[in-house]
Amino acid sequence: MTVESLNRQRVLHLLDAFARGDIEAALAGCTDDVDFLTHAPIDVLPHLVPRHGKAELRELWQTVWSRYSEIRYKAPHILAEGETVATYMQAYFKKRSNDRIVQFDVAVFYTFRGGLVAEIREIIDSYDLVQQVLEREIGPLITGARTD
Under 8 Å CB-to-CB from 139, ≥6 apart: which residues? Predict the structure, then answer.
């Protein structure tokens, strides 16, 4: 088995563990000093601040699971090269408060060190995500346009 195929399987294992709510199993695939960064508006989604280390990543993932009752994903594109794996995914999070599904696309880049994930970098369509989380159109808020 090549390093690339092994790292691809490791990412899928981490994603599957997270999607079933097994945070500890997902964290087991990460280094103690794992770095997490996503490009999202932290004034609206404050739990998505940069995280360093397993304890902070655990806190983030626990916050996510406290807000959503079900998490699913599709990963139609996974590319691995050496110690890096890139994924393009469609994620589906079911809100605990009203059972609405928040659906968003995300590109996630994983960097490995010693067979464990050392870095996670996410790029999300945050405009669309914020509208779904807030359950309202945010364009008028941004442009100052009146809404009726």
Answer: 145
- pTM across the whole model: 0.87
Could you tell me the CA-to-CA distances from 147 to 36, 78, 132, 138 in Å, in that order? 37, 41, 18, 10
First to last CA, the chain: 60
Q: Give pLDDT, residue 38.
A: 92
Alpha carbons 43 and 28: distance in angstroms, whole number: 30
Q: How far is CA 117 from CA 10, 28, 31, 35, 83, in A?
A: 9, 9, 6, 9, 9
Q: State pLDDT tens for residues 43-87.
A: 777 788 999 999 999 999 999 999 999 999 999 999 999 999 999
Continuous segment of H or E residues that includes residue 49: none
Please name the amino acid found at residue 137: E
User: Residues 95, 109: contact at Cβ < 8 Å?
Assistant: no
Tell me what pLDDT residue 147 has: 57
